[in-house]
Amino acid sequence: MTSTTTDTFSAARFIKEIGRGKEGARNLSRADAALLYAAMLARRISDLELGAVLLAMRIKGESVDEIAGFMDAADASYTQLHAPAGSIMPVIIPSYNGARKMPNLTPLLAMLLAREGVPVLVHGVLQDAGRVTTAEIFTALGWPLAASVGEAQQTLATQAPAFIAIDVLAPQLAGLLALRRVLGVRSSTHTLVKILQPFDGPALRLSSYTHPEYLTMLAAYFSEAAPAGRGDAFLMRGTEGETVANARRAQQIDWFHDGARMTLVEKQGVVDVVADMPAERDATTTARWIERVLDGAHPVPPAIAEQVARCAAIAKRQPLPEVPVAATSQAAQAAQAAQQ
């Protein structure tokens, strides 16, 4: 955790602003937030100051300008990918939570989108104590994990979903993310990785939140502060933190495009789901169930089919489907045909 360079950075003036508690703290400007976070990423501040900043932000909460400044610094800290040739925007799926009580169906979402011809990049952690990660399910499915940015780039060109660990994609961000094990609490970096846009051109980000205050802040970020030309975003309440639609209770999904916000999917009550949803949440059981869905033996959960249809239409820059989307998705059609 020690500084890796002699070019040290004093964070005292920033801590003085943000470290006065939830009521007395003041927000940093976007420029100051970028300056501070760049120093944190490069480990140019002492461990004592780093811990103070992380906990101060945890207590105070991030402003839109602070998240924007942090993201400015984060974007400059790693090598971005190139989208595959063509007019279809890649879809970015962050996966930093995994399954705790419900099966993690993020890999199903990724493959259904890939089958629609959409380039899909999944990034996240490999393991998380007490949870089943998307990376573990990819492995159980026999789908490779990219060992480099170049490998992820090659997988995207094959029309298969690419998974890249945050340690490989953005090592400096991964270093700050890993401090959760030291401090015992999440930090601003957990918010940043869920809204990361690692392509050098437009893409569709699938983002989620877990607490209502983050809905307000992230909506303002995507509407007002996200850099121009980076594409669109979907924002929804996470399914145990994941950005896949909840098969039992579909969440509201808001679409952010050119500074405008539109609700694409309304929040639903508890819905009837297929009776054979995987009873266990372990990686092997979930992987076998996903395979059966992809083979057409089981139907795609309607909420996920709807999410796929909406994502595919926007990624392809096509009109949004007006008919029931479970019938518009190619994946859903294949599953229905297999049952007849």
Secondary structure topology:
Blueprint: H1 12-18, H2 21-24, H3 30-41, H4 47-60, H5 64-75, E1 91-95, H6 106-115, E2 120-124, H7 134-141, E3 145-146, H8 149-156, E4 162-165, H9 166-169, H10 171-177, H11 180-183, H12 188-193, E5 203-209, H13 212-225, E6 231-237, E7 253-257, E8 260-265, H14 283-294, H15 302-315, H16 325-328, H17 330-339
Parallel strand pairs: 1-2, 1-5, 2-4, 3-4, 5-6
Antiparallel strand pairs: 6-7, 7-8
Helix pairs in contact: 1-4, 3-5, 5-13, 7-14
Features:
eight-stranded mixed β-sheet; 340 residues; alpha/beta; 17 helices; single chain
Radius of gyration: 20 Å
Within CATH, the superfamily of the largest domain carries the name Nucleoside phosphorylase/phosphoribosyltransferase catalytic domain
**Quantity of strands, as a count:** 8
In what range is the share of β-strand residues?
Answer: 5-15%
- Predict the CATH topology of the largest domain: Pyrimidine Nucleoside Phosphorylase, Chain A, domain 2
Class from secondary-structure proportions: alpha/beta
What does the average pLDDT come to? 90
Task: Count the domains.
Answer: 2
Main-sheet strand order equals 3-4-2-1-5-6-7-8
Outline type:
globular
CATH class of the largest domain: Alpha Beta
